[in-house]
Recover the amino acids of this structure.
């Protein structure tokens, strides 16, 4: 049985999507594949068990799901954090090893979703470097690209993991960054012993959420256009300027949510005249009847929340940063982009074949 750990050096780099794409590719080659996430950071309760949200969704997408209680043996819940800080016993390496034995039974390949950065899990003894040794696995790092940056984190991963680092896939690569990545960063890394298997282009659709998900995260009240709650939102903008500037500002992005004070009718009307998927009104201040009627006419949901604008922005950043890949055809899309941009045969030969 072979294992591949998919990790990253910073959050929101697309680990879960890469795991799903790998699982589909291995399945297509006729191999029994399983999924494992040793250290979950998004606690939920499912089927009466405490688990991780992504672990639950990925596991149930398998042709043969693993036992849920074994798929994610350690979950960083509030009680887990409190127990660690109070030096009370918590599940750790021994529980992870035992769970891995159960989850991998009958599998030829295990796709393991590792930590989101090099530090995550250190306190619990479950960092990526410890995990690779613990599971006797090699590591594939998915690295989000954001301009021309020194690859310090990747070189740190190389020093920590040694030969267990199998290579890197660059994810969410925007076209303006592509040339610098291929001409400068990739050759530099190759010279330092870090192999690149390919690049995956940035796709706004993959990082989109629905208006309904925004309602849930912000605990908002829907004031109109409820039939459009499943429309996609690809980004968000904050409206805190005059109407004339707001109109020019809002035209820069499409399929967006606009966050503004409930008393800013001028900003709200400007947003409604551009490609807007939702208006989020903060401060529990309801809109004027004129604005509400216009939003309803255009089919743009207006959400009323009782938080201030800063809090709403922070929650939206967290929501938009974590890509939800279940449903809406996103799994097929990321798999297609993965197959197009990555040297699959080389990658699978290096890790699992």
């Amino acid at each position: 049985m072979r294992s591949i750990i998919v990790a990253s050096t910073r959050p929101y780099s697309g680990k879960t999507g890469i795991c799903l794409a790998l699982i589909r590719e291995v399945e297509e080659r006729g191999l029994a594949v399983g999924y494992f996430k040793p250290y979950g950071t998004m606690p939920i309760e499912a089927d009466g068990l405490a688990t991780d949200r992504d672990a639950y969704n990925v596991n149930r997408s398998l042709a043969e799901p693993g036992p849920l209680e074994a798929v994610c043996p350690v979950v960083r819940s509030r009680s887990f954090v409190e127990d660690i800080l109070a030096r009370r016993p918590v599940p750790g390496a021994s529980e992870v090893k035992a769970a891995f034995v159960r989850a991998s039974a009958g599998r030829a390949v295990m796709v393991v979703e590792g930590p989101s950065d090099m530090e995550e899990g250190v306190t619990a003894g479950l960092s990526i470097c410890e995990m690779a040794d613990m599971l006797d696995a090699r590591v594939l790092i998915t690295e989000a690209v954001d301009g021309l940056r020194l690859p310090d984190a990747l070189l740190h991963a190389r020093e920590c993991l040694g030969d267990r680092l199998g290579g890197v896939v660059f994810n969410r690569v925007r076209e303006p960054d592509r040339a610098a990545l291929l001409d400068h960063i990739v050759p530099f890394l190759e010279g330092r012993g870090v192999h690149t298997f390919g690049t995956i282009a940035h796709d706004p659709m993959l990082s989109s959420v629905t208006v309904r998900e925004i309602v849930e995260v912000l605990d908002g009240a829907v004031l109109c256009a409820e039939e459009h709650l499943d429309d996609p939102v690809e980004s968000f903008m904050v409206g805190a300027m005059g109407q004339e500037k707001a109109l020019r500002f809002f035209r820069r992005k499409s399929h967006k949510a606009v966050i503004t004070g409930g008393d800013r009718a001028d900003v709200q009307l400007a947003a409604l005249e551009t490609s807007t998927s939702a208006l989020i009104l903060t401060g529990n201040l309801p809109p004027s009847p004129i604005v509400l009627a216009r939003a309803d006419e255009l089919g743009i949901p207006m959400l009323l929340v009782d938080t201030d604008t800063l809090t709403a922005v922070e929650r939206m950043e967290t929501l938009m940063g974590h890509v939800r890949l279940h449903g809406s055809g996103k799994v097929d899309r990321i798999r297609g982009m993965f197959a197009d941009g990555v040297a699959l045969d080389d990658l699978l030969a290096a890790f699992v074949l």
Remarks:
- Residues 2-206+323-351 form a domain with the Rossmann fold fold (CATH 3.40.50.300).
